[in-house]
Design brief:
heterodimer, A: about 425 residues, alpha/beta, Rossmann fold, flat, disordered C terminus, B: about 500 residues, mainly alpha, three-stranded mixed sheet
Chain lengths: ~425, ~500
Amino acid sequence: MSTFIDRRQNDRRKHLDNRERFLRRYRRHIRRAVTDLIDERPITDVIDQADVSIARRDIAEPTWRHANDGVRDLVLPGNREFMPGDRLARPAGRSGSDDGDEAGGEGHGSGGDGRANDDFTFTLTGDEFLSIFFDDLELPDLLRNEAGDLVEPRLERAGFASDGPQTSLAVLRTMRQALARRIALGAPLRRRLAELAERADADEPAPDEADEPSGSDPHEQERRALERRLRALPWLDEVDLRYRRLSAVPRPTSRAVMICLMDVSASMDRRRKDLAKRFYTLLHLFLSRRYERVELVFIRHTDQAEECDEQRFFHDRRTGGTTVLPALQLASTLIEKRYPADSWNVYLAQASDGDAFGSDPEFSRHWLVESLLPRLRYAAYIEVGGPERHRGSALARAYARIDVAHFQMARVARPRDIYPVFRRLFERRERQGAPS
Amino acid sequence: MSGLIASGSEWSFASLQAFDREIGQLAVDEYGLDCYPNQIEIIASEQMLDAYASTGLPVSYRHWSFGKSFIAHEQAYRRGASGLAYEIVINSDPCIAYLMEQNTLPMQALVIAHACYGHNSFFKGNYLFRQWTDAAAIVDYTIFARDYVSRCEERHGTDAVETLLDACHALKDHGVSRYRRARAPSEADRRRRDRERAEHRRLRHDDIWRTLPDSRDEDRVADADDGTLTEPEENLLYFIEKRSPTLCTWERELVRIVRRHAQYFYPQGQTQVMNEGWATFWHYTLLNRLYDEGRVDDGFMLEVLASHTNVIAQRGFDEAGFGGINPYALGFAMFTDIKRICEAPTAEDRAWFPDIAGGDWRATIDVAMRQYKDESFIGQFLSPKLIRDFALFSLRDDSDEDTVEVTAIHNDDGYRQVRRRLAQQYDRGAQLPDIEVTGYDQAGDRSLTLRHRRHRGRSLAPGADEVLRHAGRLWGHGVKMQSVEETD
């Protein structure tokens, strides 16, 4: 009378459609929440646990309900001391908690209702977060370079296999296989039969005697045995079964390296480093969205440059003057040694307060234009600093004369500025002649 | 056939089948429950959340609000604020029940007894379900609805469909008919009626009436269905679907889909106490019976009882965690109490329930299950003993006064009033505002007039204007709302 069905292996992602609709509908709210998130959160864990809150009233679905006025009679359990006619103070903040029922599916065991706060909070997955964050943003000149890392296998049709799920049985192929087998296995038998027939024709042309050779004739016996064997050849055998074969073929995907350059001299205080860090983080988010694999290289410099790890890059402080050129030269060396431009997309992001002295800005500009930019997909320079300097630093003035489409620069003074700047830097633009 | 059915706390399909067989035998052969065939499906927690979001239907059309509801349930579940249901059961034929894979064996047995025999027989027997739902067709209908909605999205755009569904959802609660509509007379009926009328006139013919001035009464009766509104219509979505001057065919079909869904769930809202009480009563009775026969061991029964007591816990109004009257507790107590009144009536019971005291409990609860809904069930069967057990009392909260008044408690003077008040609490009028279509200016500006009858002076909660705008969007022309006091 009862049927049991195991549904556990069924599709568990039925709800994703509806979720996507929900996200689409409240995209504006969610984007605002995401922007706030970037602002408030320490950068390192922006993506994991992207909790987004929307005010409950914004997503309410109103229906006609009774307001809490007029006359209401309530029946409640648990009376201990009340007598008829007692008058009680109206309990505060508990009005309307007696809503009869929210008609719905049956079910029991769910205790308590979770409408604790005024905000509807939920967690975006990493992908959702990034897709909202980078909506409308696109890296300029996004070339798929020569096959780099081989990631993400895709299933492709790849001939036939003798084993596989029933659903991918290749009927035509199977029948062809069976036909071939029958022909092949039957051929020697038929050949022998033909021989026998020929011999019989030659030996005994008399038809009346051929009627009753009565099994004694060894040829006749052999003929019968052969015919039996022919008949016993199965029409379809298990060895004939062929299945369409799918094999995982790795698809070529591009890889990128992002070189972070930062001035860590004493003039770069904590606040400025923090601004720079946000910029790098965003750039990294963006690149990891676009490329399967993104490597990070950190180069810090005072008047000399060195490669270091992320921790020291952001948190160690150095003393010394400021010269940009060595850092750019180091970047060139690294690119030459480790990241040849024909198999890597190389990005350069430089942050500085712009302090540079003497001839350094000009030399740096020259190096950047002549030796670095031709090998880069994209380079960005942001100047972190107070709003006090209007004309920009020496370095900024020098860089401002670079007129190449894949170099951009901007000034950032407050955390709030980062996102718009970032957007401006990476806005969709016409693709124009870029280095290959 | 005696001895333990299965032991341990891990379930397997074999042990589930064994339990289903035993419980089914008891329920059907011995207690005479009339059930649909069962289709029991084991699902994982994520699928349970899925089923929640689509209000318990196995298939549902796509809409953002289901996504929102999924997220809400999921967050609550992840935070640990709420557990998941052990099961969900769908009023369909065969009756589909979802069992969570995490349940232990005793829990699965409890859930099978509760859902697959308790709820199942309720769905099949109760008059509201029989009248308003078509269990055999619902799954096919939801599949049709899903496909239809997605075809509309392809053809007319997701946004257009979403806007329309939003509006329908806002009016969903007022897209329900409480009374069966008279079947429209067929052409043959109409012809026969005309014939009979003509015959009647011929037989009663008296030439003298010709001398009186013509009152034209008969013309009016004959033309009664020319499209003007003769009576208020409580089912707003029905009215809009049938009469909206602007909706396209596909839009009408979407309105109809939402309306049919709302109507399908209408009986569940009206029978929550009874339905849960009935199912709880039967899982308790059936599993105790298995225990008495030595078919399950002590450990099994302890786990069942622990869960059972959790389910039927009723907190007092001033205790932490109080969430209103627990339908499981009240319903279970009432069915158990009816059985007690039949088997061992006291003098009080004989005075209050002369017709059932000392009768056959099986027959009595069967009638109760089939012919009542929450309101009438409580009004009929809540006994003074239960009012004492629950220590029920009645409060009057009049917004014109500063204090609330205790109007009745569990004493001789109060029983009837408490019972009446509690029954009214489950009346649809107390739960939802009474709003009807009263006018349609077909010849003029085509505006629709709604009338809100204030239930005991209660106005509409904030957000009502928003709903009215939704109604206007559906109707395509102006929609006005009048508010009047209840007349009685």
